[in-house]
Amino acid sequence: MWVFYLISLPLTLGMVLMTLRYFAGPEVPRYVLFTVGYTWFCSLSIIILVPADIWTTISNPPHHNENGGISVLWSLSYWSTFLLTWAVVPLIQGFEDAGDFTVTERLRTSVHANLLFYLIVGSIGLFGLILLITMHKIRSRGVLGFAMACSNTFGLVTGAFLLGFGLSEIPKSCWKNADWTTRQKVLSHKIAKMAVKLDDAHQDLSNAIVFKEDPFFKPQGGRLGENDMDYDTDEKSMATLRRHLRRAREEYYRYKSEYMTYVMEALELEDTIKNYDRRSSTGWKYISSFRPARTGKIGALLDTVEFVWKCILRKQIQKLLAIILGTMSAAILLAEATLLPSGVDLSLFSILVNSVKSEEVFVQ
């Protein structure tokens, strides 16, 4: 069991760190990075817990209720996710979104916004519960079971929608991205769409910055709305203006980053197509239009390796990956469709587990 933990734990942590590095902005506070990282780790902990739980269930005798440490790990993951979802993350999110000038005021604004949200949601839920009790649909002692059923139903329905999207979209996107012509069209559309968003975000940021200096000056190209001048000089109005400025700045740099990412990918794809078409004249070497040329024997070797990877192998690997993921999607759908006891096991994963259930490493 510990061998599996030594493999799966660093793998999961690596996935979390890579995702944080990809998505996090340059000025995100460390406590936010830690909170988001731990939240994602709790979500991805199923990679560690599910295989270990399956082996624990198989290796124990029938009707054995004690799962040892695995039950403690499940409880830790569940309650961590619960507290993060309903308390910690909303509080930090509201704190970071607040435009107040002191920590106490920002914390107070976050608590007030979250309490207002929970009060509205709780009132709606309480009204529906009282209505069901009045209509004799449920009894008062069955409220806890009803709440648990609603929670599980919400989780299952949401999971089913997300799973259904992933099962079809991920293999399809892998297959489409392997086609250079299709990918060029997609990138052209994304660049044009992001350029419009970037222009709007730039104008919004310009207006917010000008308001901070001189509310009566209109920047060239800016578009002031009828509510843009509704800022007084009191602390509350200044906090609202500061919040607007911060949001506008973050939105601008986010769209700028996405725009540059799409542009660089489009330029690299254009280079890949050109290098593949001119492979005979260039000696099967990759020549980049926006990177200095490599020199020396090692440089020539690296150019050849880059050509083989970007122009030949990557395209084929993407298609192979799409086929593998499509097969996995079909296997998952078949397993879900035949989940009810029918005497015939059509789940590929169940068949694989049962065929090697005496070997811990193979099961996991």
Question: How do the helices and strands line up, and which of them pair or pack?
Answer:
Blueprint: H1 2-23, H2 30-44, H3 46-59, H4 69-97, H5 103-134, H6 143-177, H7 180-213, H8 235-277, H9 279-282, H10 296-337, H11 348-355, H12 360-363
Helix pairs in contact: 1-2, 2-4, 4-5, 6-10, 7-8, 8-10
What does this structure look like?
The protein has 364 residues and is mainly alpha-helical. It has helices at residues 2-23, 30-44, 46-59, 69-97, 103-134, 143-177, 180-213, 235-277, 279-282, 296-337, 348-355, 360-363. Helix 2 runs antiparallel to helix 4, helix 4 packs across helix 5 (103-134) and helix 6 (143-177) crosses helix 10 (296-337). It starts with a helix and ends with a helix. The mean pLDDT is 86.
Low-confidence stretches: none
Mean of residue pLDDT?
86
Structural class determined from secondary elements? mainly alpha
**Helical run tally:** 12
The end-to-end span amounts to: 9 Å
User: Compute the gyration radius: what is it?
Assistant: 27 Å
Give the H and E element order. HHHHHHHHHHHH
Strand content range: under 5%
Question: Which percent bin holds the helix content?
Answer: over 70%
What form results from the Cα inertia axes? Answer: globular
Number of strands: 0
Summarize the structure.
The protein starts with a helix and ends with a helix. The chain is built from twelve helices and no strands.
List the keywords.
globular; mainly alpha; GPCR-associated_LMBR1; 364 residues
